[in-house]
Amino acid sequence: MTATLPVSVDELPMSLADHLDGSYLDLDRRPLLAVLDTSCVRTGLHFQIKNGSPPKSVTSARDGLVRLYMEYDTLVETGKRLPRFARQFGVSVAELTRVLNEDWLPHINVVSIPPSWREIDSRALAVRKRDADDYPAAALAALLSPCILLTRNVKDFGALGVGALSQGVSGVVAAAKVEDGQARVRAVALIPALPIQAAGATVKWALQRFGSATWLAIGLLVAGGVYLYLDQAPERRERIKKVAAGIGTHLLEQYAAATAEVRQARAELVACLVPEPVYRSPASAMLRELALSYESLSAQQLAELIKPELRPAVADLRAQLRANDKTLFAQVRRGGFVLGRRYELPYLEM
Predict the structure, then answer these.
(1) Rounded CA gap, 176 and 188, in Å?
(2) Torsion angle in degrees (nearest 10) through CA of 10, 11, 16, 21
(3) Superfamily of segment(s) 9-162+274-347
(4) What is the pTM of this model?
């Protein structure tokens, strides 16, 4: 059977339009996807040689904040440029190779996009017109978008929305702010629940040990607390209410500040992303679902994740997965595939 999965966005009917309405970014899905270009590799290597530690893009991939992808041809180009980078940095090619193999490549998923798939998104074709060497990374970013494109090449990647030298790294920083802000929101929201949770655990233990008599004891404690409060002098009761109100007000202020920080960080992240295509192709939907998955997927599992209007036949998905095994996909279990595979520079032909 011949699979018919790759479809150009220009061939999709208008009924499949997925217009930009603010929700298309799907920012709550993790991990955040990022595509690495040679120009950013050079900058990152220089940073690491100078400071002794990997750049933010690599450490974020190591920590699971972002999932880094790199087109195989881009990796080949990087390998060919290592002698030039070594001369510029004043180190040996062997040292740069070691840094890449030990600190970078274990956290990068390398994919080889078939030629016909590269042509699906017109934005990638616009990049190809400017520089053929940037075409592979552009095609990958377009297919995975919305995503971060880690490049400093503003001139050639303009069709993908790159407008600043630090846009990619700023996107990674903004993603970290979103994660930190969301953690703070959850922490503030959890504070009022902690005493309840603690009480719940105590009640459960007491029920197991003392049986139904526990509820009588709880009732007496609550009644006693109410009685003690009512038995206080009016001035003391007012002080208790003020303290309780102050705690509640402080928590509300903390919650509002945290949510405002998350909104601001999300806005910064949106500004740094390669926007998703106006029309999502079936091939793009397939790659993006695989890229976002935390586990390997079979053709059937993948089909269930793709929107119905973009969903190819399971047989077509299975054919594409098998046809591109070890290049675009990697079969890590019987019938279970992930997007990309690991490489080391010694395997490259240079």
Answers:
(1) 18
(2) -10
(3) 5'-nuclease (3.40.50.1010)
(4) 0.77
